[in-house]
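User: Sequence in, structure out. Go.
Assistant: Echoing your sequence, followed by the structure tokens.
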Amino acid sequence: MPQVTGIFVTWGLNFAALRLFAHMKVSLRTLLQLLAGIGLSAVLLYLTFQDRSFSSLTDAMKQADMFWFFWCGVAQFLILMLRSFRWQMLLRSAGYPSRTGTTLLSTFICYMVNSLTPKLGEVVRCTVLLRTDKVPISASLGTVVSERVIDLLVLLGGLGVIFLTEFARFGNLFTPVFEKFTLQTALIAGVVIAVLIVGAWLFFRYSPRLSGIMGKIAHFIRQTLDAARSVFRMRRAWLFLTYTFLIWVISIVMNYFFLKALPETVGLGMYFAYLLLFLGGIGWAFPVPGGIGPTNFIILQVFLAYGLTREAGQNIGLLTSGGTFVFMVGFGIIAWFILLGRLARKQVA
């Protein structure tokens, strides 16, 4: 059962990864985040699988069709490759062109570390480019932020589509509100919206003068908007958007392949794969290794909400996050050894 095994492996490899990048400054706060992330992951895994035995889970994984599992690995490789191409475009736009090979290797290593630690991979991939291509960490981290902002916007858009398409399923929650919607409440709502618009304008107008938590919020919002606008200012913005589109489409297809791999989910279609990607993607926002734990818990709730069996939700959650863990770590280890070989040859030369 690769996913549960990964939780225990993480305890040892977290610190090994930090030692490999000893010149990186790791604060006590970062260490506490590592431990808290692993703890949260363990708690949510327990809540998800508390009614299942280890043997029943392994038996379920043995039922997986390796043909579809293989194509999941191919899809994962393509996604990481496209991510590296997209990141390279951002680096060039920032004035720091990087080599395609090292960008690709650093991306693979990044997602391996992200599978073992709570989001330390972003710093690691920037550190790799500093050593190989002399790209300043401050510049590469800025492009990583831009990349993450774009993915966040896509995720929010995908969740918005789910809300609209599934409104009938949850519409009864809002029916009492609309039944009481009168002219008076419409006027009140209009006033509230106007106040919010004026408040937002004042907030951004005077945000540079803000300090403390409000200043940080204002800075984050400005940074998000600037990152989104920067994409359309770069050369060949259409190519960047094409990479982004393909990344998310292939991710949906990969989830579809995972569904096809299990007997109990083989009948679910591409739309359900879309649901798993965007709803399960919320789990990746949690500071846990590889989103393991939150993703499993969310996928289980999706299956229950659609009247599907609890066992099917547990099994597909285990296969998707466990399979992703195996692919990420496998590709990352290969990339790591290739990178070490290149650095060794460079030193000899």
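User: And one key feature?
Assistant: The first helix runs from residue 2 to 20.
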